[in-house]
Amino acid sequence: MPSTALDPTGHRAAWNSVMTGYLPGLADLEQVITTAAERRTGPPARILDLGGGPGLFAERLATRWPAARITVADLDPVLLALARAALPTTVTTVETDLTDPSWPATTGTGYHLVTAVMTVHYLNPAAIRSLYAEIRRILAPGGLLVVADVMPDDGLPALMTALEAPPGQAWSHWWSQLASAPEFAPLMDRRTEIFRSRPPAEFTPALSWHAAAARAAGFPEAGALWRHGRHAALAAC
């Protein structure tokens, strides 16, 4: 069903609420990312958001940098349909399987900023290492990679990590709302087929693991950009 038949407003607003619960400090993270990108190269001309879902972060980036050409890459047809129905023409969406090493063929190269927010925990260690190597190849000179996900620090107090239990009920409710909407039925069926044999890896190593993997992929610099409890952001350039 064409994305023009979808009304994305309420679903995208609800997704934003769910993601804010999953990733405490989301607004601060986004501010840190944009500030880091501007300090490095000025307003980025080309941006790639991997696992960008319904495109809320991309939309905010487009508002901050109207001249930027932004690409949202995701494998989920439901989330991509919501993105296509709402995003401005400066944002392109592509269906991309990050476990396939040829994925850059769908996105192109020459990006000044590549982001992956709550995306890499779906991948196993080998796939993450391959992903970082491919990102290194598609970055423009001076470009920046930011990966934000669950990256626990063994030194965190147990209470802090306990307070960040993922709101699974809100997540389930959001998907059940879509499943009950007839206009989403074909997309939900396709999503079921895609993910039937793709259980999430739920691989969540420490930030130091990600930094080492990024350096092994050819990034001269890799380290912490942001932290909020169990969640952290890696910057590599």
UniProtKB/TrEMBL annotation:
Which InterPro entries does the record cross-reference, listed alphabetically? Methyltransf_25, SAM-dependent_MTases_sf
**Span of domain Methyltransferase:** 47-143
Task: Spell out the SUPFAM superfamilies in the cross-references.
Answer: S-adenosyl-L-methionine-dependent methyltransferases (SSF53335)
Q: Which domain of life is it from?
A: Bacteria
Annotated PANTHER family:
METHYLTRANSFERASE, METHYLTRANSFERASE TYPE 11
Protein's name in the database: Methyltransferase domain-containing protein
